[in-house]
Amino acid sequence: MTDHTAVRRAPDPAADPAADPASDPATDAVDLSTQAPAALATALAPLPATPLLSRVHRPGDLQRLTSDELVALAAEIRAYLVATVARTGGHLGPNLGVVELTIALHRTFTSPRDTIIYDTGHQSYVHKLLTGRQDFSRLRERGGVSGYPARAESVHDVVENSHASTALSWADGIARANHLQGHDERHVVAVIGDGAMTGGMAWEALDNIADSDDKHLVIVVNDNGRSYAPTIGGLAHHLDALRTNPGYERMLAGVKRTLLTQGAPGRAAFDALHGLKRGLKDVLVPSAFFEDLGIKYTGPVDGHDITALEFALTRARQYAEPVIVHVITQKGRGFTPAENDVADRFHAVGRIHPETGLPVVASRFGWTAVFAEEILSLARADERIVGVTAAMQQPVGLQPLADALPGRVIDVGIAEQHALTASAGMAFAGLHPVVALYATFLNRAFDQLLMDVALHRAGVTVVLDRAGLTGTDGASHNGMWDMALLAHVPGLRLAAPRDEPTLREALRVAVGVEDGPTVVRYPKGSLPEPLTAVRVVGAGDQGAARDGDEEPFGAVDVLLDHRGEGTSPLLLVAVGAMAPQVVAAGRTLAEEGHDVVVAAPRWVVPVPGALVEMALTAAGVLVVEDGLVDGGIGSQLRDAVDEALAEAGAHPGPRGRGPVVDRLGVPRRFLPTASRDELLADFGMDEAGVTDRARRLAARC
């Protein structure tokens, strides 16, 4: 991962197993000088004392603490998490729930010789504190501690990918490699929870893990009954049943021992009762499912009792084959506002008051809220519309629809692939599914969108929240891949609204399409001021000679038109949320005497024919988008212009008859943790950067 700050690289655990170097939700860096008095007081409030935590510089230091000190340490960690995350925002509820579990893991296993993997990575804050990273003052900010595991921070961090349900596959691979290379003294621990067991990939991994009994692999199921909200699916009900039957295995084991000591009659009785036992297990204790796979199971264990956890984990470590340790935890434990938050137990928070849990600054009306309001209105008017979510009903804005129209929102769990294919089935049967996802998670279901939805021309709308640069959640959460990926899907139409009115219009259009997939994408955060078009060009003006011209998908809004009669202007194309920066740059260029037009296509895939015609009459074209610059909308427009010129026997550039087409967007690399504004500035995509790039383009034309 590329970063703009100097970091110490983690040493090789194979070379130095004892090496333990310390590292030198939607929140930007704080400028305290600009904060309101309440916010300033919260940001500057003294942090709680941590006399025990300050003695823990590496996991081995935990061995020197007494049982009473471990309990006190857990309390210190919770107080520190509340105080620090309140200042920066972040994943609070999940980490409050794994304090004792993380302490027990690091007392039982020897990291980094033993590999500990977190699924999902937002459960890793306590792990960071116990591995030398105790400065959370810039958590999830540039130069600070990442909100997810990061290899550049510590040798103890392994999997940076924060997409759920992957840890078991990682663990399977590492354990197999350890065995093949003769490292049978090493253990692999996968901590999976917060709904990740609802993902199909986790079950694919379990099937393979069960097929081998030569691995020192421990699977810790962190069962808090929730993902973002209460966990959905059959497995959740199974785990609930397990909670009520902790003594079942002990009873059956006693019966077995008694019968087998009675000689042949006892063995005969045992054989006769064996089928009954299995039937009882299937009914009463669904742990039988894991054992039927061939994986040892132990639990449930109180996830807030360090002694009980260490006992269970120590037994699991002694197995030379895979074993599941089922741990019951409470999300948000120890922080009353989180415990009382029925919606998601403070899964992720912005800056809050640490005493009350209330926001420091009230949230502005944002993109997600507009979607939530509009989709409810559309669903009331059209009974065919159903919402589909992958364990994120509230974060993506479907909660109001679920509350108002019960049964009209389907939560499939962390199963984006299933969400898309099931939606294709619903569309075939007469519904219009609206699948709401974070943009980064659509990557997981690209094949299903391509082959199940698009190939079958299914009327499915996909709404992508957190599209573009999301910043503080790091590389795996930036929703920057969508437009470059989706531009290649035949029959797909993609809208990139720039403000509230265009978002509402795009949704209304999208749910009316029944002959193929539609996608509406927007960033996270608050809404910009509306940008009104000075005029609109589209199919009515240009005819229907090119793909993308049909109404209403061919409409292109002109937001600024400053040019002399008969001149060939610079054409600045604003894609979606980049419109404010592009309009500001256009105004600056106009003041400097440039002929400039700013255009904002409402639908960007396929490229509107009207936009191609506008480009052909321009001296130069600059496309600005908050997605990948390679293969994105700028690339699509450039290709369309080249094709049009080839048809006319001309060539692009100042020596031919066509324009120079320049592209400005996100580079093709994994991005460091930073705010959206910082990343825009880094890539020359802020107002100053767009203006400078446009000036340079003008000099070439």
How would you describe this structure to a colleague?
- By secondary structure, this protein is of the alpha/beta class.
- It folds into 3 domains: 53-340, Rossmann fold (3-Layer(aba) Sandwich); 366-523, Rossmann fold (3-Layer(aba) Sandwich), CATH 3.40.50.970; 553-699, Rossmann fold (3-Layer(aba) Sandwich).
- Helix content is 38%, strand content 14%.
- The chain has 26 helices and 18 strands.
- The strands form 3 sheets. Strands 7-6-8-9-11-10-16 form a 7-stranded mixed sheet, sandwiched between helices. A 6-stranded mixed sheet has the order 12-13-15-14-17-18, sandwiched between helices.
- α16 (416-428) runs parallel beside α18.
- The longest helix has 22 residues, at 67-88.
- The chain is globular and about 100 Å long.
- It starts with 36 loop residues before the first helix and ends with a helix.
Total domain modules: 3
Structural class: alpha/beta
**CA-CA gap between termini:** 36 Å
What's the average pLDDT? 83
Q: Tell me the helix content.
A: 25-40%
CATH architecture title of the largest domain:
3-Layer(aba) Sandwich
**CATH fold annotation of the largest domain:** Rossmann fold
Question: For the largest beta sheet, what order do the strands appear in spatially?
Answer: 7-6-8-9-11-10-16
CATH superfamily of the largest domain: Thiamin diphosphate (ThDP)-binding fold, Pyr/PP domains
Determine the number of helices (DSSP H or I, runs of at least 4 residues): 26
- Portion in beta strands: 5-15%
Number of strands: 18
Explain briefly what this protein structure is.
Keywords: Isoprene biosynthesis, Magnesium, Metal-binding, Thiamine biosynthesis, Thiamine pyrophosphate, Transferase. The chain is built from 26 helices and 18 strands.
